[in-house]
Backbone:
């Protein structure tokens, strides 16, 4: 059981290392970042952060943490996520992600759209669509699990074990 917890922590560390390398963004004009912030606020992104940490902790705990460690894991993750995965902590980075993908004019147009009744309806319905889409994906995997297991078995039988260097890329 201790090995599983160590493996989980190592996976989180490797994921965080890879994400850090992928999130470098250029400098943006303050008005461009302000347009990104306005869009995110209009979409309610700040309010969605209230339970993101809990959702991540709950999902990862059921997938990777042995039952006897789950309550402790959730307690630690709640503190950790409340410290680092909050709107206040990530707002600037998220704004830069949007600014990198959309021009200032496009951000302003999107904000105008999301202020319309249809835009507000999309924001309201999007979590439902994402949840239902996730369930559809899970069901597709479940329906074809034996095929996936065979494909993985075949792939791993014919592959050389990855090195630590391979896992960092």
Residues:
């Amino acid at each position: 059981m201790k090995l599983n917890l160590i493996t989980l922590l190592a996976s989180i560390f490797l994921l965080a290392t890879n994400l850090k390398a992928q999130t470098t963004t250029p400098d943006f004009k303050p008005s461009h970042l302000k347009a990104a912030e306005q869009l995110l606020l209009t979409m309610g992104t700040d309010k969605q952060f209230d339970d993101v940490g809990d959702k991540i902790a709950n999902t990862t705990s059921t997938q990777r943490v042995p039952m006897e460690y789950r309550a402790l894991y959730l307690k630690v993750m709640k503190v950790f996520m409340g410290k680092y995965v909050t709107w206040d902590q990530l707002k600037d980075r998220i704004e830069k992600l949007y600014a990198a993908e959309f021009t200032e004019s496009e951000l302003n147009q999107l904000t105008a759209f999301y202020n319309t009744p249809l835009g507000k309806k999309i924001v309201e319905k999007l979590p439902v669509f994402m949840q239902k889409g996730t369930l559809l994906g899970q069901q597709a995997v479940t329906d074809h699990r034996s095929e996936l297991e065979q494909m993985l078995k075949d792939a791993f039988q014919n592959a050389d074990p990855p090195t630590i260097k391979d896992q960092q890329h």
